[in-house]
Amino acid sequence: MPYWLQRQLQRAFQGKDRRQIRILNDCWFQYQQRGGPVITESK
After folding, report:
1. Would residue 42 count as lying in a domain?
2. N or C, which terminus of the chain has less Cβ within 10 Å?
3. Which residue, among 34, 15, 12, has the nearest Cα to 23 in the 3D structure?
4. Prediction pTM value
5. What is the pLDDT of residues 1-43, one digit of tens each?
6. What does the pLDDT read at residue 18?
7. Is the separation of the CB atoms in 2 and 36 below 8 Å?
8. Whole-number Cα distances in Å, 40 to 2, 5, 15, 18
């Protein structure tokens, strides 16, 4: 999962923003279905 998406999900979970969590989750699943590269960055 790209680092930028991990950060946004962390913020959404910390803020308990269910709408944003759903949107980001949908983005991630669509990204995977289209065959996007799976990028993992450790920081």
Report:
1. no
2. C
3. 12
4. 0.69
5. 889 999 999 999 999 999 999 999 999 999 888 886 666 655 5
6. 96
7. no
8. 6, 10, 24, 24
Q: Considering its fold, how many domains does the chain have in total?
A: 1
CB-side exposure of 2: number of CA atoms within 13 Å?
A: 12
Owning domain of residue 24: 3-33
pLDDT at 23: 95
Which value, to the nearest 10 degrees, does the dihedral of the CA atoms of residues 37, 40, 41, 43 take? 160
